[in-house]
């Protein structure tokens, strides 16, 4: 199957049709013609010359259980804004975001809590958002106590299991403070914290772009492993096409707030149809055989970043 360039509606219909998982599982997360505009301050005066800017313009897309979807595009194309709408952090100006078929705008009480638990985020500098006075153990315990209601003993056991899973030996890291960790180690803590809520999907917004190149592959390998082991779905927001090749099942290409092309990672990277995607690929060489090495990495390769 080849990639496509088409209108958002046609794209949504095609995405649903081409995705074999759509016939067996309802989407976890779905954007239906979502748009978001922001007021922009004009240059002529403080508030007089206000204009609105359409950061996301009628995007439709779906993320199914266990699926890794990459969202690529240049800076300013609207990727983060779309991700924030899928996370419920930014309200759409138009259209709908659905979680397990229900409009997120209408979720209340337990349904809203379930959405907040099951849809987690890992930011570029997730480690930077850790409370500097909380130990790593306390930071990871917080969602266990709040979101899952575990008692102190159960949450201590789970903290250790989670730290172990992200490659941070608990005896060594549990009592440390964030400033005592490297950037890669802090990002592992951020991943552990996201996992603590037992998510079905993680929105990962440039999760490795702040890290040294040598550390990036380790974190990507960890994320690929966790995805496989836990059957997680990811929305991977990135401008790094190497990451797409390494991890993604499906790719959406955004420019100017719109999705202009979608398809399997191989289709889009090997046979890009849209001129924008072709330019993006020409501007960014995509290293090969990373896909295999990251996807098939074994747990023994997990290193402390
Ligand atoms: N809170 C906001 N207020 C005003 N404008 C905003 C806001 N958030 C985003 N924008 C604008 O919307 C557009 C899309 O931004 P967005 O961050 O979604 O793009 P992006 O593709 O994620 O870029 P990057 O890769 O640089 O993060 C940009 O022009 C940005 O300036």
TrEMBL record:
InterPro entries: AAA+_ATPase, ABC_transp_ATP-bind, ABC_transporter-like_ATP-bd, ABC_transporter-like_CS, Oligopep_ABC_C, P-loop_NTPase. The keyword ATP-binding applies. Signal peptide: none annotated. Residues 284-305 are annotated as: Disordered. Residues 29-281 form the ABC transporter domain. GO terms for molecular function: ATP binding; ATP hydrolysis activity. The keyword Ion transport does not apply. Residues 295-305 have a biased composition (Polar residues). Gene3D superfamilies: P-loop containing nucleotide triphosphate hydrolases. GO terms for biological process: peptide transport; transmembrane transport. Keywords: ATP-binding, Cell membrane, Membrane, Nucleotide-binding, Transport. It comes from the Bacteria. It holds the Pfam family oligo_HPY. SMART domains: AAA (SM00382). Belongs to the ABC transporter superfamily. This is Peptide/nickel transport system ATP-binding protein. It comes from Pseudacidovorax intermedius.
